[in-house]
Design a protein that fits this description.
Blueprint: E1 7-8, E2 28-29, H1 37-42, H2 53-62, H3 69-76, H4 86-110, H5 135-141, H6 147-152, H7 155-163, H8 172-189, H9 202-218, H10 228-238, H11 242-260, H12 270-283, H13 285-293, H14 303-307, H15 316-330, H16 335-339, H17 343-353, H18 365-373, H19 383-394, H20 396-402, H21 406-414, H22 422-445
Antiparallel strand pairs: 1-2
Helix pairs in contact: 2-15, 4-9, 4-11, 8-9, 9-10, 9-11, 10-11, 12-13, 12-19, 15-22, 19-22
Length: about 450
């Protein structure tokens, strides 16, 4: 159902009545600007091929109507090729759902609580792989039994409840490492978007826990890190099928997993923080110098913004609006082919693009700028870096005059929570991107 111009979207993401300090959503559904179900359906040919170029500018101007947001995101994130047909997508969807069910079944064999409709928040295993007989875990795993009954059960039964069958060999270390993260996922799940009515239902909490637990096993090199629950939560709200939500999240992580790669000495997001420092040095050298003088030259104060894409700085509805604008601006029609690693997909990609230039009309506005300016295989910078840079630019005067230490920087930036306009932030990022490219090009010629 289409609303009147300027209709609010809060009814789609209902906030619990007792949560009165939640930022109000600024995004409104506007007729003629927001991508409506009618305009979206009109962008498909009779057999299902999508002219995505028709929709990108509308998404940037007015966002996506909440009723179609999930299916549009699947294209923006590269789950499907716009040139695929309805039939081809249905086959892909069936295949992915089966793959997810197999992954979930494999995880369930290692830890039976997965897929049970429950989740855990206490450690279940030591670093040596020994099960922890934590009463909280036993109760979470068996809510129908009391502690008295559990106390009388044999150690073997209790061990099986929380440990599940395991193998003995090289994989043991991976399994132990995975199980060590499961309670941390649970702790984060119960804190994620807790102001939303959606998460009053235990089944939705367990769905989020299941997806993150399966992903941690699926991408064992990255595993699970704090912040992933903030990125995954919208997926299960927008996409009813758990497997579809998993693969949408997995595609988002393809873009962001580098931020979550951790070693003993570094965190992956440091690369983007260094890029942010370089960008700020070019577009606002005075601010950059000031931040360095305060000891903030590593830009760690912007860590959260980049890790969870401004989820904490905006209301739930506005953060979704910001994300879809970013993805529409960055959209690359080759995204699906780049993400698919099967021979068939590679052949299809080669066959369709060999010797043929990428259609700029099917690219997002930001991506078109990159195609024009990034020569000889240069890596383009993500728009998220320029979003943070635009926030710093907007607060530049205040930071220069009022920040006398890093605590002041953090406080000034924390004050933006709930006060940012997603559309203006994206517009500011685009302007800074152009300014940056122009200055870099001029410096190269000099």
């Amino acid at each position: 159902m289409w609303f009147d111009p300027g209709a609010p979207v809060d009814s789609y993401y209902e906030v619990r009545p007792e949560c009165t300090d939640v930022p109000k959503t600024k995004f409104k559904i506007k007729a003629g600007k927001t991508l409506s179900p009618r305009k979206w359906n009109a962008a498909f040919t009779p057999d299902g091929q999508l002219d995505i170029g028709k929709t990108l500018s509308r998404i940037y101007r007015g966002g996506i109507h909440p009723t179609i947001r999930g299916e549009v995101w699947e294209f923006l994130l590269g789950c499907f090729d716009p040139q695929s047909t309805y039939e081809e997508r249905e086959q892909i969807r069936k295949s992915r759902r089966a793959q997810y069910e197999q992954l979930k079944e494999d995880c369930s064999k290692m830890f039976p609580i997965i897929g049970s409709g429950r989740y855990i928040t206490a450690p279940v295993i030591t670093e040596d792989g020994e099960p922890i007989q934590d009463p909280l875990v036993l109760l979470e795993a068996n809510p129908d039994k009391g502690l008295a009954q559990l106390a009388h059960e044999s150690e073997a039964v209790k061990t099986e409840i929380i440990k599940g069958p395991t193998t003995h060999g090289p994989e043991d270390k991976k399994i132990i490492q995975w199980k060590l993260t499961l309670h941390q996922i649970g702790l984060d799940v119960v804190r994620t978007d807790r102001t939303l009515v959606f998460y009053e239902k235990a089944e939705n909490l367990s769905k989020l826990w299941d997806i993150l637990s399966v992903y941690a096993w699926f991408d064992i090199d990255v595993g699970y890190c704090q912040g992933m629950s903030d990125l995954c939560s919208p997926m299960i709200i927008l996409l009813e099928d758990e497997a579809d939500a998993f693969w949408c999240f997995e595609r988002l992580m393809r873009r962001l997993r580098g931020n979550f790669r951790c070693t003993e000495s570094s965190v992956g997001v440091e690369t983007q923080l260094c890029t942010l420092a370089s960008v700020t040095q070019v577009i606002d050298p005075k601010l950059h110098q000031h931040l360095e003088t305060l000891g903030g030259g590593d830009y760690l104060f912007a860590f959260r913004m980049l890790m969870v894409l401004f989820r904490r700085e905006f209301s739930f509805g506005d953060s979704l609006y910001l994300w879809e604008m970013m993805w529409a601006l960055e959209y690359d029609p080759d995204l699906y082919s780049l993400y698919e690693d099967t021979d068939e997909a590679a052949e299809k990609s080669e066959g369709s693009s060999k010797g043929k230039a990428k259609s700029k009309r099917q690219c997002g506005k930001y991506e078109r700028e990159n195609l024009k300016n990034c020569k000889n295989g240069e890596t383009s910078l993500p728009i998220s870096v320029f979003l943070v840079a635009s926030v710093l630019k907007e607060k530049s005067s205040k930071l220069l005059t009022e920040a006398r230490g890093l605590d002041d920087v953090v406080k000034i930036l924390n004050d933006i929570t709930g006060n940012l306009d997603a559309r203006k932030a994206c517009s500011g990022a685009m302007k800074l991107h152009k300014k940056y490219l122009k200055k870099v090009a001029t410096a190269k010629k000099a």
